[in-house]
Amino acid sequence: MSNFSKKTWEQIHSIFYPRSIAVVGANKVKGTVPSDIFYNILKADFQGILYPVSPKEQFIASVKSYKYVVDIPDAVDIAILVFPSSVCHMAMEQCGQKGIKSMIIISAGFKEVGGAGIDRENQIKDIAKKYGISFIGPNCLGVINTDPNCMMNASFAREMPDAGSIGFISQSGALCTAVLDYARAKHIGFSKFVSFGNKADINEIDLLMYLKNDPQTKVILMYLEEVSDGQALMGIAQEIISETGKPILALKSGRTSEGASAAASHTGALAGSDEVCDAAFEQAGIIRCENIEEMFNYAIAFAYQPLPQSNRVAIITNAGGPGVLATDMAIKSGLELAKFSEETTKALKKSLPVTANIKNPVDVIGDARADRYVTSLTSILKDKSVDGAMVILTPQSMTDIVNIADEISKIAKESPKPFLTSFMGASDVAAGIDIIQKRNIPHYQLPEDMCKSFAAAYNFKKRLGTKISPLEIFEDVDSKTAKSILKKAASEGRKFLTEEEGIKILDSYKLPVLPNGLAKSEDEAAMIAEKIGFPVVLKIMSEDIVHKFDVGGVRLNLNSIEEVRTAYGEMMRNVKAAMPEARIKGILVQKMVKGGEEVIIGLKRDYTFGPVIMFGLGGIFVEVLKDVKFRVIPVAKETIYEMIREIKSYHLLTGARGRSKKDIDSVVNCIQRISQLAVDCPQIKELDINPLLVQDEGGGCFVTDTKIML
Q1: Is the CATH number 3.30.1490.20 carried by domain 515-592?
Q2: Using the 8-state DSSP alphabet, how is residue 472 labeled?
Q3: What is the pLDDT of residues 437-462, one digit of tens each?
Q4: CA distance 571 to 584
Q5: Chain Cα centroid distance, residue 389
Q6: What is the pTM for the complete model shown?
Q7: CATH topology of domain 9-299
Q8: CA dihedral sign, ordered 71, 76, 81, 82
Q9: What pLDDT, on a 0 to 100 scale, did the predictor assign at position 226?
Q10: CATH code of the domain made up of 467-514+594-710
Q11: Which of 43, 85, 398, 609 measures 20 to 30 Å from 358, CA to CA?
């Protein structure tokens, strides 16, 4: 059992491998869900005993029917509930009395309809808890297991899918039917196929835990509308990938960012739900897909072929244009065109016409028949500098499509290197595509999709070899001071800390804050400025003022005592005029640092994934350019460096166009410390350090402005 799952492996296994099934609510009315569920189990050659339960029928399809589930004389492993939602609780109660510990509740009319449906769902959850029942649903399509030892189609899908090595779990039943139809047309098979609906009991974490240990499953696909537990999802995904090497591909709906405009900080405004989900999936190793087609494009590359050992590929085509398109996408996707050995070059030159291009991409010319593809592929796949092949075919009058498909399929089956194909077109190439797909060779209608799929497999392989160091815990922090400040603010019912309080918290976690002091008069301001040295900045301190610039509450680059005194008086008058009701604690006098690159570090607590850290280009352009990236806390040092490298303006920090290289290591240290602060102090809802001024390499960085929201 995984630490992330609330169910044991045995509890889930009993649903996938029952020895006996009771369809509770079955009937004889063809075309209805209760009837289709029963007949689907019957037609799929289920390797167990099937019991229809129907108050009105004595038999269904020559199978003896029982009025109530408690009337069945033998033990029942699993009940499939297809009664209307209004009576499901009564049927479930009887299942509990019968001693049935596993159920699939197909019926709709629960939480998804709101109102009384929520009460009905809570009612069945209570009954399940009372009898120790584990169940999938309600409001789901059902469960399919293609293992010949079981052969269970406990769903109302139109047909039993082919057996395969892809496990698919989905929150949407309607999407499942579309997926099954799409996969059937492309001869894509499944190991397990689950629609889990409202996930009132068993959820995606439990199912992922099961598929982790399922020997029939090589690749895991999932569709989610909401994430039950973000941290658990990330944890189980990392566990699956690191321990089994099984890739996880995901479709997650809800890509819009709601409520961002109401956020009080830059981080809150930029860290929409979808941005955080993207970051969390990437951090966990989950490959997020844009649509069903992309998901299956990637899935067949993972399921049918070995992972590429490098990004060095060879492209073979019978048309120059598609070869160029494939080359462009290969390079854009991070692949590299392999440079052939002298031996390979000689072999290609000998076997291909003089008009053929024997460099990568190899063009075997439009009149090529199977022999040219075979000799080219055989030579290329033997080359040690090639770690994968991609084959393109366009239908021309002399092209023997079926024979080429047959021959290259044989080569692909024997090759230890990944092999992808793209027969471009539709009707003319249909017979060849059918041969390729039936033999489980990845096929793509467009060469660009083929290249992206190869790149996805390579990137996953590369990730498997990445080592993550243990989290660094800083012992020099003063968490008591931070918690004391936060506790005081909370007791006063405040939503925001003053910047003075924020600076004290950051200082307690050894972030590089600038020398400062709070002044309550012109004389105090002048004295503090003289002590810390010029130039200085003045900032109004008030728990009622969040955006200080808007009310004239910031003065920069003050270089003398006289300038400080004058600025102090003017600021007090301006702020009182703009916000007469604001409670002013004083004015913060802070050392001003010139130069350096402006970046932002932010923190936000996400409802699903917990604390999230943000890094990006800072200053006044942060919400205009939105050049930021996110990671979920806790975050390892390697992941922080990766996040920093991902921003578009990264080269500004590394010395682009004659600029000096900046102290990235000091930024990483700041992010690590903010991450520890987030874990230690859950009262912090949002935090911005903007800008953090990053000096030249070795010069560190400085916090110039901070905002903390409770």
Answers
A1: yes
A2: P
A3: 999 999 999 999 999 999 999 999 99
A4: 11
A5: 28
A6: 0.91
A7: Rossmann fold (3.40.50)
A8: negative
A9: 86
A10: 3.30.470.20
A11: 398
